[in-house]
Amino acid sequence: MKVSELSAESGVSVATIKFYLREGLLHAGLQTAANQADYDGGHVRRLRLIRALIDVGELPIAAVRATLTAVDDESTSLHDAFGAVMHGLDTVPPDDTAPDIAAARREVDAWLRRRRWKIEPDAPAPHALATAVAILRQFDFPVTLADFDEAAASAERSAEFEVAYARGMADRAAAVETMLIGTVVFERALAEIRRLALEAVSARTERRHGSGPRRPV
Amino acid sequence: MKVSELSAESGVSVATIKFYLREGLLHAGLQTAANQADYDGGHVRRLRLIRALIDVGELPIAAVRATLTAVDDESTSLHDAFGAVMHGLDTVPPDDTAPDIAAARREVDAWLRRRRWKIEPDAPAPHALATAVAILRQFDFPVTLADFDEAAASAERSAEFEVAYARGMADRAAAVETMLIGTVVFERALAEIRRLALEAVSARTERRHGSGPRRPV
DNA sequence: ACAAATGGATAGCGGAACTATCCACTGACC
DNA sequence: GGTCAGTGGATAGTTCCGCTATCCATTTGT
Fold it and tell me: Which tens digit of pLDDT belongs to each residue from B13-71?
């Protein structure tokens, strides 16, 4: 398979494929001559993975590279490869540690201990969660970490399913890839479902409260 | 309050405040002289809202403007104002309607009808969900819309709570603002919890499967 | 024999979100 | 009342990102 065919197969332009090759996201094809190389199904699949991470996961190129490097390194554990996507998904803020975020962060850490969730200390997710809580409070939402207990239990159940599914794969590469896609794409799907639910409920109650342009409730 | 004070209060630089004023995200202060204006708590609050939409919701400036315009327009219903954020959250893809996405889209629409969720026909969420499903299938996940039933039911319950909470606010402006923050920030918080759950479960099973760098399962 | 395509290198582009500079002016302190 | 940092307003510049476009020497298929 040559570039033009790879491009047709994957829907990614030749120029962009070249760019990904340069950036080290896609491994070079098998060289058959000074200016000829041969690509295979692995390249198609890899391109699909790259596009999924970029389009659905909205990872920046650098994070995609870091993730794929971990994926390709056989000595990286499934768990660590997976950690790489996590870091890519959450853009780590520079240092904005406002006092109320710090307070929320301590609550988050206590909550994680209570749940017996062992999280890498410099993972971005706890900080992001603390930030979200702090912002909700700024806007007068009376929110506690306990309010997330149900969501956490449900997330844990589905995480167990997903991880078991990935670990059941034939080989490590497939397991890591499955984990990546599962993380990124399921997250997106669930977010969309939440949005749909909000829109549906909002529409329903709008009708109940009277149709047409509304005045204050 | 003058710019420098507003800047200190909100943590947004003067240059950026000027930029937001120019872009129409922030309404001008009360003019007291040719080159003097007075800002108040409303401006601080608005800046916080803008930053939340940009930082947490990752909305582009244009979407923030569209949203805030709907918020400020008294004749826009709560539901419609809320629809504006939805459109901003999902970056609408140009036209990439691959055949497998179209098929998934039909399933999504049927699923929505089954749930009796009335969704605006050109809302981006159903398309995004269909895309996610199509991608999962490309990677051999045997996924059905029915697999999302539980998540949907749970999303609906929390949406009902959120909408009721917002509709209970004293005035329309507060209700819309609450809805916005709730949508964007809760979504983020739930996503982070999902990531934490995955990391915790992954770490736990990693240990069970043996520590240190892993070979194929 | 020769047009089309390839790999490799380098330069350019367009959008987004700020940031910096300049200016004429003013309000607040000395 | 002088002065000077700060202000609003306008305009231009910067940085980053994710591609695109162009060039070129080689090679391939016909």
Answer: 999 999 999 999 999 999 998 888 999 999 999 999 999 999 999 999 999 999 999 98
- Which residue, among A33, A45, A39, has the nearest Cα to A18 in the 3D structure? A39
The answer, for B90 touching chain A at a CB cutoff of 8 Å, is: yes
Domain-by-domain residue ranges, chain B?
1-56
What fold characterizes domain A1-56? Multidrug-efflux Transporter Regulator; Chain: A; Domain 2 (1.10.1660)
Residue A55: how many CB atoms within 10 A of its CB? Answer: 16
Chain A residue at shortest CA distance from B187: A191
CB–CB of B10/B44 below 8 Å? Answer: yes
Q: What is the pLDDT of residues A144-156, one digit of tens each?
A: 999 999 999 999 9
Which amino acid is present at B136? L
The DSSP-derived string for B175-195 is HHHHHHHIIIIIHHHHHHHHH
CB B185 within 8 A of CB A132: yes
Point out the nucleotide closest to A19 (alpha carbon to C1′): D19
pLDDT band at residue A121, thresholds of 50, 70 and 90?
A: confident
What phi and psi values does residue A92 have, to the nearest 5 degrees?
-75, 125
